[in-house]
Amino acid sequence: MPLLALVPLLACQVCNKYNMILNELYSREPEAYQDVGQDNSQPRLGDLRKTRLTLRQINKLRQMNDVRSYEYKEKLKQVKKQYAPPPAAPAL
Question: Each residue of 39-88: pLDDT tens digit?
Fold first, then answer.
C-alpha cells in the first residue's frame, strides 16, 4: 500500500480521537457516577501500603458493572432497531 494512501486514514483516526474528546467535554455524566466522599484513591505522604478494597467498594463496582451492561444492551437494541431493514411492502 503506498504511503500516500495511508495519509487520509491516519488523519481520520486522529480526527476521531479529538472528536471523542470534544464530545466528552459537552456531554455531562450523571451526577451519581462518582462519589467524591468515597474516593480514597489519592495517596497521602505516609501511605506505604497498597490500598485494599472493602466489601462496600466491591459491591459498588459490581452494581456499576451491572448498570453498564444493562445500558450497553439497551443501546444495542436501539442500534438494531435503527439499522434494521425496512418492513416489506404488502403485495397488491
Answer: 666 777 887 777 788 898 899 899 999 999 999 999 999 999 999 998 88
∠ CA 14-21-72, rounded to 5°: 105
Question: What's the pLDDT tens digit per position in 20-50?
Answer: 566 566 666 666 666 667 666 677 788 777 7
How far is the C-alpha of 70 from the C-alpha of 90, rounded, in Å? 36
Domain map of the chain by residue range?
Answer: 52-81
Instruction: Give yes or no for a contact between 40 and 50, defined as CB atoms under 8 angstroms apart.
Output: no
Phi, psi of 65, rounded to the nearest 5 degrees: -65, -40
Q: Structure pTM?
A: 0.48
Helices vs strands, H then E, count in the chain: 2, 0
The Cα 74–Cα 8 span in angstroms is 34
